Model the fold of this input.
Amino acid sequence: MGTVVLGTGSCLPKRILTNKELESIVDTSDEWIRSRTGIGARRIGGKGEQAYQLAAKAARRALDDAGVSVDEIDLIVLATISSHMIMPSCACLVQNEIGAKNAFAYDVNAACSGFLYGLDLADKYIQADHSKKILVIGVETLSAKLNWKDRNTCILFGDGAGAVVAGYSESDHGLMGAHFGSDGALGDLLCMHAPQSLNPDLEIEGYPGSHVLMGGREVFKHAVRAMEDSVRSLLDAQGVSMESVDLVIPHQANIRILNKLAERLNIPQEKLFINVSKYGNTSAASIPIALDEANKEGLISPGDTVLFCAFGGGFTWGAVLTKW
Ligand code: UT7
Done:
């Protein structure tokens, strides 16, 4: 008995930016990007594809899939770090766009881990009141927050949105447990400044601009270690072995991170869902997009044990285990 995913949806911008096209933007190559990241292309938002618009489409698709009307939604929890506005929250923009007039709405910021943090919050609300139905959304338009002259970052990220409708089930299906961690001491390794202060006394010295900055190699090492530790802690706490997990849907940052994780945790390739080659790293959107694809491709059956794990700026990380 617990919190179940009633439906999934996603929305990707139309424009595909290939590695080949990036060769004319920065000093890079298709070969380098593929071999170091596993990324072949990413989607880039265009007109009418702001974060809230992509998120609203993903949300409508999740509602359709769940057979839930928008009026039944009590809460919208939205994970993002790249909405075009700081206030109103992207969640409130989505609420207005889809007409979810009975919902309250707010954003969570946990970078690439944000969707899982949001799912955990939804679980807590639903455990407290079984009648609640909640939209959990992950969306990014990071193309608007990249330094397109920095080959260390601009080749990695993409735009998109994914959403789930969460509700309560009397069956023995649902979220089994979660494990989360954060380490603010390492925040500088993967960060993005807000716009520069308009109060001279609060100006940031040496302001680098409001775009993603990353120490890639360090982030890589921490990502593998943190996700491994989180998954182990969660499986131990739940008394579940990796052999009995049917599908792992990790945050899609880099194929080499995922392969290392699979090696350390003994995850067979066929149980590891990977779509990073098509979309790059869509940060908070990557897990709900991947979940929607896995769901629509029929890769998840009722009763399957599905494991999610993520790592991102903050640092933030975590894992969630569910019986589908
Ligand atoms: O979403 C969660 C957070 N993000 C991540 O999880 C990303 C984690 N990090 C990574 O995925 C990898 O560290 C990167 C893909 C970012 C970089 O791969 P790497 O194997 O760690 O490369 P590196 O940063 O150590 O760079 C190796 C070389 C350098 O040249 P030198 O100094 O050896 O001459 C870089 O300047 O590759 C160079 N390089 C590039 N070359 C061509 C860096 N970016 C590029 C590029 N094209 N785009």
Summary: The mean pLDDT is 98.
